[in-house]
Write a structure and sequence with these properties.
single chain; alpha/beta; five-stranded mixed β-sheet; 5 helices; about 40% helix; about 20% strand
């Protein structure tokens, strides 16, 4: 399994989000070595607080698999999931979460707290800092241009 390859796909989506004026976060969901779903931030476009990259990808994966259960899937996201996304990931039964940049402001996988260390059944395995420097650079560059 090439974690960097999948994270590069998520980074391409993050850059697409930035080009549309969105905070650059991208996500892909992988099953059996194939990307089955993808998402990018669309909060501004949809004017929806729930339109995070992970939420968009989870919804697409549910449609593709015709199931809310994604227990044989892995999720790759460029920024550590927030509490909303971490909860949705738990509920979807994602097997593993790979993230790029840590989020010390809203991160729910170690940045502020780690939701997956609580007593929930079936927490996903968690791996951070996949292409972390590149993920941080994309975010920092975006925020430099809007400030």
């Amino acid at each position: 399994m090439d974690h960097e390859f999948y994270m590069q796909q998520a980074l391409a989506l993050a850059r697409e989000a930035a080009a549309h004026g969105e905070v650059p976060v991208g996500c892909v969901i992988v099953r059996d070595g194939q990307i089955i779903a993808s998402g990018r931030n669309r909060r501004e476009e949809k004017q929806s607080a729930a339109s995070h990259a992970e939420m968009e990808a989870l919804a697409q994966a549910n449609e593709v698999l015709h199931s809310w259960r994604l227990d044989d899937c892995d999720l790759y996201v460029t920024l550590e999931p927030c509490p909303m996304c971490a909860g949705a990931i738990l509920n979807a039964r994602i097997r593993r979460v790979f993230y790029g940049a840590r989020d010390d402001v809203m991160g729910a996988c170690g940045g502020v707290l780690n939701l997956y260390m609580e007593g929930f059944p079936r927490p996903p395995q968690l791996v951070g800092n996949i292409c972390g420097d590149e993920c941080r650079d994309v975010l920092q560059s975006f925020f430099r241009t809007i400030r």
